[in-house]
Design brief:
9-stranded parallel sheet, 7-stranded parallel sheet, about 40% helix
Length: about 550
Amino acid sequence: MTSNHPSPAALPYAEYDRSSQRRQENLVPSDNASSAPESPVIPKAQEKPWYIQHFTKLLIGFGLGGGAVALVLPWMLWLHCGMSSGSSDQLRLHLLYVTGGIIAVLTLLQTNWKNQGDRLKIDADIKKNEQDAKNEAAKREQDAVKSERDHTRQVHAERRSRYTKAVEQLADEKATVRLGGIYTLVGLVDEWLTDETLDPEEQQKEGQVIINNLCSYIRSPFPLAEKIEEYETHRELENLQKLDSEKLDEEVSSLLQTLLKRFKDSDGYEKPKDITADYAKFHEEQDVRRTIFVEMSKRSSAFIMNEKDEIIETISGMWSDFDFDFSRAPVFYPLNAITIEKGNFSSTKFYSNADFSEAKFTQTADFSRTTFARTADFGGAKFTQKADFGGAKFTRTADFSWAAFTQKADFSWAKFARTADFSEAKFFQTATFGRAKFTRTADFSEAKFTQTADFRNAEFTSKTSFKNAYFKKYAPPFAGISGAARFSAQVNQEDYVFSVSRGSKPINCGTATLYGKSFEIPIRSVLFDPASWDEDKQDYTRFSIPAR
């Protein structure tokens, strides 16, 4: 791969992977931890009562003793006490009954004790079986969690492997391979965001790593873009030089002078040897880089606006919480009709036409210190948060017609070398044009300003129109403590139009005179001579007194 496609380095995952594994191991019992089932609760052996311990002896003793008593006692009573034969027989019978009863009671006691022992043993066996079942279930659960943990590790490792390969693809010579790498990275971001094994913070962290690589690719240099821009501009100069200079209008003539100044030494310009091949590579890279923005757009926030271009509802997208950094990027491809979540384009250079027509910026759009080498088209664009164009340089036409600025719009210190078209634009909050320079036409016709529109210290060198503009709450200030707006005295009076819409706060005008020419311009603003520029002072030297 040539230097045209440097790949952003893959960020290491190893350290985070180790911490992730440790976190998972803390959630799951260690394999080394004792998993042996607890000893079953075996009841203490029932202590044998005395009659059980001597059951046999008692049984034999009572049997023999009872029998002996039953035989001897009646006989002795008959012999010595004169008990009748019938009575002695009855006594013998009762003694045998008593002996039998005692033996029966002993037998019942022994049987009862045995039954109790069996019951306790059965209960112990049941408890043991229940404990064994619990231990088995716990082991199965532990094995399942371990298996899930191992599977998660495998999935994460596989993702990181795909990530590394995709980053390498971004440096490939073939555009199709680079596109494949981009789609892989985009898919990986979505996978991390939907990974339920990670908490939201970790999901965001993993996704941001990949977003950083995509942004890094956008910011990577592409020398061919500058080469193509130079070629097209030089060809434009050649075409203008073929025209009759006396028939050129002021706008075209000014452009011709600008191009002649840029290519002072036309003979020193070397045309590309194979412009066809260069254009093929150029268009391929345009498609690759725009694809990144298209995929980001699909996952960005959406908002619903009413017929007045006021936001009714904002719906967050999958990638709404990521940070995007396109600062200092070389941009040479259209970005029209897409949604840009966080448009940090500060210090960016647009080599070809910057087409943001119908684009939507859901958060702050930062174009501060940006250079637009060719036309900048923001026609119909929607800015839902602050739009910062402070210090931006517009080399060609800047089109903001029909654009809607929901929050503050900052164009302070911006330089418009060609037409600046803000016709029918809507500013719902403060619009700042302080120290902005309008070298050619400044068109604010039918623009609507809900809050303050600040034009203090702005510089208007050519036609300026506020025809049918609408200032809802405040008349626009053109002068103040910080300084006054400047209007060229080298144009015709009719080139300045300050007739606002009916119902609007007025632009209060007064008269200012320079070189004997009087103009109706905003009160306290001044006329100046564009030809009075002093290089040492870096300012103009000829001004009128403030209009009054």
